[in-house]
Write a structure and sequence with these properties.
With about 575 residues, the protein is mainly beta. About 10% of the residues lie in helices and about 35% in strands.
């Protein structure tokens, strides 16, 4: 046991103050009959140290353990979290100079409306109706915020008559509001992408047929949500109803631990990466045009401003040499940062409004270069894949297919990966396509068309060239082996309204990690058996973007990233499975 300097700590258990010594905490969670309650998250909070939160889980005996609570503060708070339970009583006792025993007694609650994630309110939305799937996927994974969030629920509560006839125009108005807010980080910021708030480009993005949600999307969303939410009571949700929603196998064990590092900015910390050879975790703050270096040992954050007018760091990936590559969505470019010497290079030869988006990666979730050293990426603004010559900075683009009458922005080319032969780029388009671009041929040679509302998003690839993609609307993971062919496979996630945003291959565990946006859960999928494991996230509003894996120890990292800026928690999150 690690010995700490003896220090008096004031500890608050769910609001109940007491006096204890030490930093090692063990305990049990039981119900009113003394029976153990399993799968309860016990969370320790200290705003004075890092990590700000540490969370563990109760096992089949109701036992939990913080082995070395990394907090040296004068006040620590504990809370117990599990849907369907609330605190009845608690006690804490000293078990030595540096150890505590914590006893928590819970009682079941039948109304869990304040505990359930947004996806629970979508239970019952048809899995077969394409309009319903489009509504779920468009307003959750593509809308960049959880849905229905508290703001939406509060507005619906105030509707004088909650009938379908009244709600259809309300939902149409909300979609138009989403079109507007997609052009801003928040209501009090300037327009994104260099737009001035007026002019043909700005006006076009507010028109249905050239926006992310076209007129057909608007109709499907409005009619389906009007029918689904008519007369809904957001203040009541039966426990049994939530328990009936399909669940995966509970993933955390008695040694699983979440750590949350407060970034203290309230900004849009969109994604993170781990660079080989660096002891830090690197995050990008999109709305403030900077790169953050987080020290997991201390929680300290140091910020590097992007030089040469680089704006809007969106996606970040390391390469095998330890460099960080960042797409600059707001200034239509790419930046390279070398942690070894803190040097930047900004590549700015991209055309206006290309909206550089995703960099094509390998099975390590690192940048995969082609045979000539070129970097490939998706350019959302004009529906192209681009090749960046990393020596000269020259950019070559290739137009991707789209249906007649479709706008580039609505097609929304998104994720991409490169196969091990360095000749195939697999890409996704939100409008419903996963395709293969042959580098030698310079054209798309294979395509999988998907029905409206499927919404393929971020992608990953394993060492055998199996391509994986998150299907936001359908709540599935799509898989296809590019080396051997055959038919694609779809894995149903337990919660089909979870709106999966991205997938990341885990070479060590031979598993796929799935970042969801709408149910405060991270999934681990075993493609061989099809078994799916649930990892409940510590925070509500856990809108997850990319998932990164530390190749040295297997730790999982992600970040919370809701829009508008400030709407949701602002933490880098470490999962020690």
């Amino acid at each position: 046991m690690k010995t700490f300097v003896k220090k008096l700590l004031s500890v608050c258990l769910l609001g109940l103050p007491t006096i204890v010594w030490g930093l090692e905490v063990t305990g049990t969670v039981t119900d009113v009959h003394g029976k153990p309650v399993t799968e309860v998250m016990v969370r320790a909070k200290s705003t004075q140290t890092a990590p700000a939160f540490v969370s563990v889980f109760s096992d089949k005996n109701g036992a939990f353990r913080f082995s070395e609570l990394p907090m040296l503060a004068e006040k620590v708070e504990f809370e117990a979290k599990a849907v369907g339970w609330r605190l009845r009583s608690s006690s804490i006792e000293s078990a030595g100079d540096d150890a505590l025993t914590l006893e928590i007694e819970l009682i079941q609650t039948e109304n869990v409306a304040a505990q359930v994630p947004p996806s629970a309110w979508l239970a019952g939305m048809s899995l077969d109706d394409r309009g319903a799937r489009n509504a779920v996927g468009s307003c959750s994974g593509s809308g960049c915020h959880q849905f229905p969030n508290e703001a939406v629920k509060n507005v619906i509560r105030q509707l004088p008559i909650a009938t379908e006839e009244v709600q259809v125009p309300f939902w149409r108005g909300l979609i138009q509001y989403m079109r507007v807010m997609a052009l801003y980080f928040s209501a009090d910021t300037a327009p994104r992408w260099g737009l001035s708030g007026k002019g043909p480009d700005y006006d076009a993005l507010l028109k249905a047929d050239s926006s992310l949600w076209n007129a057909d999307d608007e109709t499907m969303i409005a009619t389906n949500f009007a029918a689904h939410f008519a007369n809904v009571n957001f203040d009541h949700y039966e426990r049994e109803r939530f328990m009936a929603i399909p669940k995966g196998t509970f993933g955390p064990s008695s040694t699983t631990e979440f750590r949350e590092f407060d970034l203290h900015t309230g900004g849009w910390t969109r994604e993170l990466a781990i660079a080989p050879g660096s002891p830090y975790v690197w995050v990008v703050e999109d709305d403030r045009d900077r790169l953050g270096r987080v020290d997991p040992r201390t929680g300290d954050v140091y910020w590097f401003q992007i030089p040469d007018g680089g704006r809007g760091p969106h996606t970040i990936n390391a390469d095998a040499a330890g460099n960080l590559w960042i797409t600059l969505e707001e200034s239509f470019g790419v930046a390279r940062f070398t942690p070894a010497n803190n040097k930047w290079r900004v590549y700015d030869k991209f055309a206006q409004f290309t909206l550089s988006h995703d960099i094509c990666t390998d099975e390590y979730h690192q940048v995969r270069f082609d045979e000539a050293g070129g970097l490939w990426l998706t350019l959302l603004g004009n529906n192209t894949v681009g090749r960046l010559d990393t020596k000269t900075g020259d950019v070559t683009t290739y137009k991707m297919p789209q249906k007649e009458g479709e706008s580039d922005f609505h097609v929304a080319i998104y994720g991409c990966v490169m196969t091990s032969d360095l000749n195939s780029i697999w890409f996704s388009q939100i409008a419903g396509v996963i395709g293969r671009f042959d580098i030698d041929a310079g054209k798309v040679v294979q395509s999988f068309d998907m029905p409206v509302g499927t919404i393929p998003h971020r992608m990953s690839i394993d060492g055998d060239d199996t391509i994986y993609a998150a299907l936001v609307g359908d709540g599935q993971v799509w898989a296809y082996n590019a080396k051997h062919g055959g038919e694609p496979v779809r894995y149903n996630l337990p919660d089909r309204n979870s709106a999966p945003y991205s997938v990341t291959w885990d070479r060590t565990r031979k598993a796929l990690w799935v970042a969801t946006t709408n149910n405060d859960i991270m999934y681990r999928l075993d493609p061989k058996s099809g078994e799916i494991f649930d990892y409940p996230m510590p925070q509500p509003q856990s809108y997850l973007r990319a998932i990164e894996i530390d190749q040295t120890n297997g730790d999982i990292w992600t970040s919370y990233a809701n829009l508008p800026v400030g709407d949701g928690p602002n933490y880098a999150v470490q999962l020690k499975p």
